[in-house]
Amino acid sequence: MIKANIIKPEKASEEISCDDCKIKYSSEDYTTLYKSKKIIYSDIRVPGTTYVLCLCHDCLFKYVKHASGGKETKLIMLDDGKEFHFKFDPDDLNK
Ligand SMILES: [Zn+2]
Questions:
Q1: What's the predicted TM-score (pTM) here?
Q2: Which domain holds residue 57?
Q3: pLDDT digits (tens, 9 = 90+) for 62-75
C-alpha cells in the first residue's frame, strides 16, 4: 500500500516541480491546471525513509508501478483528510 498526499495549489510554494520529470509550474499556473484536472502534484514518503518526493500524477503512477514490483497494489491519496482509494493492477497499466 502506498500513501500520497495531494498538494493543494493554495498550499504549494511559489513554484512547484516534480522530483522525477522536473516539470514545474508557478503556483498560479498550478491553480488553473489543478482546477481543470490537468495536473496534480502529490507528496509521497519513500517507505523506510524520511525522504519525501514531490511527484506529478504521471510520475506518481510510474512510481507506484515500480514500487509494486508488478503486483497488484493499493494507492491511497489523501485530500484534506479524505481518502481516495485506487487499486493498481499492473496488467491494466500495460494496456
Ligand atoms: Zn513528473
A1: 0.85
A2: 2-94
A3: 998 888 888 899 99
